[in-house]
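sorry for the late reply, my laptop died twice this morning and i had to redo everyting from scratch. anyway the thing you sent over, i finally got around to it. pasting the sequence first so we're on the same page, its 268 residues, then the predicted structure underneath. double check i copied it right bc i was rushing
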Amino acid sequence: MTHPLITLNDIFVSYGRHVALQSVSGQFACGSLTAVAGPNGSGKSTLLKAIAGVLHPTRGTIAFADNVRPSMAYLPQVAHLQRDFPLSVFDVVLTGFYPEAGEAGGLSKAQKQAASKALGEVGLGGFEKRQINALSGGELQRTLFARVIVQNANVILLDEPFSAVDAATTARLIQLLLKWHEEGRTIICVLHDLLLIKKYFPESMVLQGKCLGSGHTHQMFEQKLLSFDLDMAELVPPEDPLHHQTHRDHHGHNHDHGHHKHGPGDHA
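ok and here's the structure:
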């Protein structure tokens, strides 16, 4: 059995008096592909931020195999990002090399070529000079994915990575996740879409402030912790993302140009 890479030991995370996560324990095996599901405000984003080190648990600990923190790439929710900085798409992707270059370090020609290649992988070839405040939600999402690619991390944390993109882009990004999984990387992905979870994610964790359950995804469905009858909040229509057609929500908006709604507290 694959050894645990990340272990959550009874963690609590609070924002002032608001407890976002309480008594959450669990493990993520090395090389696992795990979906984190639950309704809005259930602490999914908070869990990813705690693992990424963006937030620190109020109580409890997050332990890593051999007491060594692995390299991590974290993709936050697009909806919560400020976009008024004068940055180009290329600039954003290049920030993925910051841990290697540091504040005083320059970027090599190879790193710049890798950034351009990553943009091509996510379908944004030729967007290098575009300012991020001129991007659609889906284009910004793909820019952040390109940054994750160049980080080349062992652990990849994705917070609703398909929320603003169309079906063709979702298909492209899903294939990227599956490639990372084959390479033995550990992927933890916050998702609302139960169809994607059931089809592509072998492991699942279900949150609602606490951990309701974790394990094999088919077991989560058998136990009704994941169920199409449940209100998991903002589920997309039952459509296979690998059909290369424009995915439209129930209001008829193209997701690559719309904004994904989040209930109050889902970022918490």
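Residues 233-268 have pLDDT under 50 and may be disordered.
thats about all i looked at so far, will dig more tmrw
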